[in-house]
Amino acid sequence: MASPLRASADRSPRKIAIMGSTGSIGKQAIDVVKGSEGRFQVVAMSAYSDWKTLAAQAYELHPELVVIGDRDAASYLEQELPQGTSMEVGASGLVDAVMAGDVVLNAVVGFAGLQITITALQEGKRLALANKESLVAGGDLVSSILSRGIGEIIPVDSEHCAIQQCMRASVGADEVSRLIITSSGGPFRGFTSEQLSDVTVAQALNHPNWVMGSKITVDSSTLMNKGLEVIEAHVLFGMDYDRIEVVIHPQSIVHSMVEFVDGATMAQMSNPDMRLPIGYALGYPERMPVAYGKLDWRVLSRLDFDLPDRESFRCLAIAEEAGRLGRSYPVWLNAANEVAVELFLQCALPWRSIADVVGGAVESCEGRKMNTVEEVEYEDELARQEARRIVDHLAS
Ligand code: MG
């Protein structure tokens, strides 16, 4: 029998829309497409303002459509596109890009990815989701769309992709007793509170195992990334917070685990390489023919595990609490974190204050229920204002 993984005469390539193609995940997704032996075809790509990279990607992949968010960038991009590729600007273009794909990869950074997640699901698409913020902020909306049997999410986040793979070892969700989400611990694993008091942007951006965008790398240094991932797991797998555990695993070889009711624990292991979960999500339910994360047992000799230090890394505890409280608490958590991380990257806020800003904002949240994207956006804006107020107060 011919391999189902290869494109053949009777099998057309799967159409992929890459939203956020100029970022770290977007670029790695293009690498996966190029290595897919014709299995995937990029039909649409989007970026916010990096028109030079987007134009180069369009020349390489000849998508039908590119969408750019920034109007000034659009005027440059327009001059640089290959024949056969059309351009749209702004939100309406994003809908057309989503519509063009069989699979929509949401690789946008931050809250801006929410509209793409909601649109892709409402259009009944398979969503390869690398934007965890949209599940943190829009969890209730996403759950309500999925519960109506519309759309489908295949997680690209390596931990959730690992859990999804481990889940395939059971016949039903009622066999699952716990999800164990692993964390490398980030660049400051083992640091004392004193050592943490004056860490720099360069130190925070120096992740030991993963090469990623700057926002998620800072989130990894505070363990906020893990907190967001706990909420993401709660939404994706419908698991109670009492049954989601975080375990520190410095080698980043075990990407997460699922414990079943009979005591068996399944783990997904591979070298840290995001192209594996990206390829898995794009090709699901079939696996890619390229072994991106293949382990070398001559090199790998040990796997260590430990429990997280929630006192030194308060963002993890704050996120778990916000997740448990639900309603608009996770929106406030995420928005305040985005504000704080951006200021930290501009050297306008110390690393240790990120948790103060996020914790203060979550305390100010009134925990409203949200039924529409607009209501989520409203809460997000309130939370950003509150976060900026706290930052000003800390500086005075
Ligand atoms: Mg992750």
Distinctive features:
single chain; 396 residues; alpha/beta; Rossmann fold; seven-stranded parallel β-sheet; four-stranded mixed β-sheet; 17 helices; 45% helix; binds magnesium ion
Order of helices and strands: EHEHEHEHEHEHHEHEHHHHEEEHHHHH
**Per the principal axes of the C-alpha atoms, what is the gross shape?**
globular
For the residues shown, what is the average pLDDT? 95
By CATH, the topology of the domain at 14-155 is Rossmann fold
Describe the structure.
The protein has a 7-stranded parallel beta sheet with strand order 4-3-2-1-5-6-7, with helices on both faces. A 4-stranded mixed beta sheet has the order 9-8-10-11, covered by helices on one side. α15 (329-345) packs antiparallel against α16 (353-364). The termini are far apart. Helices cover 45% and strands 15% of the residues. The longest helix has 23 residues, at 373-395. The protein has 396 residues and is of the alpha/beta class. The mean pLDDT is 95. The chain has a domain at 14-155: NAD(P)-binding Rossmann-like Domain (Rossmann fold, 3-Layer(aba) Sandwich). The chain has helices at 24-34, 51-61, 71-77, 91-100, 114-122, 132-137, 139-147, 158-167, 193-196, 201-204, 214-222, 224-237, 275-283, 314-325, 329-345, 353-364, 373-395; strands at 14-19, 40-47, 65-68, 86-89, 103-106, 126-129, 152-155, 176-183, 244-248, 254-260, 265-269. Magnesium ion (MG) binds at residues 157-159, 229.
